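To close the section, here is one more complete example, presented without commentary so you can practise reading it yourself. The ligand is 6-chloroguanine.
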Amino acid sequence: MLRFDIITIFPDFFRGVFDFGIVRRARAAGLVEIAAHDLRGWTHDRHKVVDDRPFGGGDGMVLKPEPIFEAVESLTGQAGDAASLRESGRRVVLLSPQGRSLTQALASGLAKAEQVVVICGRYEGVDERVSEQLATDEVSIGDYVLSGGEPAAVVLVDAVTRLVPGALGSETSAVNESFSEGLLDFPNYTRPVEFRGRRVPEVLLGGHHAEVARWRRRAALRKTRRNRPDLFADAELTEEERIALDTEGE
Ligand code: 6GU
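Output:
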C-alpha cells in the first residue's frame, strides 16, 4: 500500500479529484491511500499564519518553514531530514517551478515508495530550507507557471498511482505506452472506416500483424519527430526506419 499525504493551504481543492478512473479503482482496491491536509493545522498562532515576507525584500510572500517541517514530521512520524526519510522508504516531494522535471522514470521510482508526502508550494516561494533539508525531491511538472503546486499534485498522484502494481488491471500494462520506449505512442483509429472524408490507414484494416507493427513504429517515429524533436533526437532507429522516414519526408 502506497500512502500519499498532500500538504496544502487549499485542502478543498482535492475534494473529488481522486474519485475517478484508475485512481479511484486503485484506492478502492487498497493499493493506494490519498489524504489532503491543511497546512494551517500545523500553525500555533491565532491567525494560522503560514507565510511571511522574504528576507532581502521583494514582492509576494514566502511559505514559512516551521509548519511545513512539523507537518512532514507528524505525517511520517520521523525527523524532518531528507536522508533519513528516504532511507525509511519515504519520499517528500516539494512541488515548485524550480524542481527537476517530472518524468516517467521519476514517477516509477516514487511508485516503489511506502509513503509519498507532497508539499504544494505557492508560486511566490517556499523557504529554501524545505528544499535543502526536508524534501527528498523538488519537482516541477513542466515549463510554465502555476499559481500553486495543487494542480501539479493531482498530476503527480495520477502518474504515480497508475504505476503501482495492479492499478492498471491485467488487460493493460504501463510497459507499452508513451515514453516507455522514449517515443510518443502510435496513432489509433476506430470505426467508422471513413469519417468526414478521412479514411483509416489501409494497413490497419488488413490484419497483417507484422505490417501493422511496422506501420505503428514508423507513425510513432514521425509523430515524435514532429511534436517532440527533443525525444526524437535520442531515438534509436534502424537503417530501414531511417530510410523510410527520410523518403516519406514530412
Ligand atoms: Cl510543481 N508548481 C508551480 N507553482 N508551478 C509549476 C509547477 C509546480 N510545475 C510547473 N509549473
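Once you have examined the C-alpha cells, check your reading against these statements. The two ends are 47 Å apart (CA to CA). Residues 209-227 form the longest helix (19 residues).
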